[in-house]
Amino acid sequence: MRSTPVVNHLLRLGFREKADDLTPLKIQKLLYFLHGWYLAVTGKPLIEEGFEKWQYGPVARGVYDALKRYGSNPVDDYIKDFDWETGEETAHFINPETVPQFSDVLEAVWKKYSPLTGAQLSTLTHLEQTPWSLTEMRERIDDELIRKYFVDQANAKRNASAETPT
């Protein structure tokens, strides 16, 4: 699926919660974590364009192009596309009924990662053995590498909680 409707869902959630730090950097990283966890849960990519390795972490180029006018400032509006039927700029969103488990994964990712800054999220993508660290600069990060990484993260968390005494 296209990345802009997914980003618009992230923005909708952020606007509803009055988040004032949704910079393009933070949105890119939230989108990456959403894509990664969606891959881990469903085995299918959430966005078709994928991510490239850039200096500050994974980047979906189409999202970068759509948000670059904000620089390091918070994004204050949805990404709009030209609608050929109406002749107007329109913000598109996902119909959650057509994308199984999207809403659940979105809520979980938002809860876990939205309290962090864009810089903190970028740092998480730069850890050793992350898909970003295993990819050459400006190359596309392989979705299977992303899926495996997030599945491993889920398994590690599951194993750690199983070892914790109650």
Mean pLDDT: 95
Q: What order do the SSEs take from the amino end to the carboxyl end, as H and E?
A: HHEEHEEHHEH
Radius of gyration: 16 Å
* Count of individual domains: 1
Record field, number of beta strands: 5
Annotation field: number of helices: 6
Please state how the strands of the largest beta sheet are arranged side by side: 2-1-5
Uncertain regions: pLDDT < 50 for 5+ in a row? none
- Content-based structural category: mainly alpha
Shape descriptor reads globular
> How big a fraction of the residues is strand?
5-15%
- Give the CA-CA distance, first to last residue: 42 Å
Proportion of residues in helical segments: 40-55%
Largest sheet features: 3 strands, antiparallel
Pfam families: SocA_Panacea (PF13274)
Protein name: Putative phage-associated protein
Domain Antitoxin SocA-like Panacea: 27-132
